[in-house]
Here is the input.
Amino acid sequence: INAEYMGERISNKPSMSFDFIRGMVSGGRNRYIKDGYNLDLTYITPRIIASSFPASGFESTYRNKIADVVKFLNEKHPHSYKIYNLSGRKYNYALFDNQVYEFTCWGDHYSPPLHILFEIVDTIFKYLSANPKNIVFLHCNAGKGRTGTGISSALLFCGMIHNAQDALKYYSHKRFINGCGGVTQPGQLRYVKYFEQVLKGEIKSAPSKVLKQIVINFLPTHQAEIRPYIEIFQYTFDNLIYSTKTTHASQIAFKCVSSGSTKPFTQAKICPNISVVLTDDIYIKFYNNGSVKNSLIFRISFNTAFIGKDNKLAFTKKELEPDCIRKDPKFPEDFQAIILFSNICSACSNTKSIEEYCPTCLAGSKRSAENWFKIRGIIENHVMPKKTDNLIGDYLEYEKMKSEWKEDGDECNSALSDLEDYGQCCLEESKMAELGCCPLPKKPQSPKQACLLYTSPSPRDATLSRMPSSA
Here is the structure.
């Protein structure tokens, strides 16, 4: 937190305590502190704003107060803003003259359905193109992951930046102090890269694949053995289509062996007992079937459009979700999850348009075909602005910033993610414990952690149990 922010906080005694709490919870995010405002929002460009959730009630003690956000937008951008609610939660849209787009099928910490990501950036582009005074205001819960995924994709779609890596870095450097933060969930990072490939015409469709086998190398050492099962969700993160779960006694057990151990190497192999056809956006959760309680081990997300000719996807420890796993010593560094597929049709591939598919493949993936028709329509009707058009501004700043980026930016992002995890208070800690991840430090090691002790409620305070996690 910079000195200017500290000075303004101390001089504003009536709201000092809540401003302090909000500042601690927002962590390393750049706040808007001027003209009497102290808000967790950042101008990523002069026409694109990233923000945390506009909150009311108890939540407004650590998030932006909705009344302050209304006042800010009406004063700074009267009748010329659109809000993109990526949180999956509702609030009083009438306060914003109902100028709010909501997207409810994008879960917290999850990647979005690919066609939804295209719909978001397409409406952003059209609104910004309609009037040079128009601005867009994107938020999720913390204004970090889902917000950054949408904005990074918009930077690509609006022609300001031409590769996913730079778009993600630019967002990180604008939203966070010293660029230490940004999009950290592996699935969200993956989908910004997917977006770039589809936008550039490298991928045109998502052929269906048959799941053959999942191989897990070097099982995480949560306990002496695990009994893994999977749940597969298709199209959206809550649309369950298949599970290998049985009773605890009948679930196959595998002994957990560290890669550095002298004991024989153990693999866990999960094979579907029926033909499981996967198409488009896929979310797979890996659980341990416990004797008392089932626990999530990790999850992964992908789109079948990006499965290579070898019909194999491999995920390392750093590519597992949620991102706290990359810091979890229970997962060996050489951990790997390998998913093997087979083709339904050798003629239909991801480089062909949907209308080129055979009747069998089309009939078996109607919803996927609809999604990819939407994507294709958006791309075909899109005229990429020239850099000189400066549609969303800051192109020159991007060029300057790019020349100053350091090679260790990813480490900085990871370091801030550690602090961000802690900043989500007791709920985030309980989530990590449920996942079997390493526990958070018990003693405050930063101002943000000290704030958590300051704001920790009594056991009777059931409100905190409903605190949203970061996006």
Summary: Residues 1-15, 413-471 have pLDDT under 50 and may be disordered. The chain is about 30% helix and 20% strand.
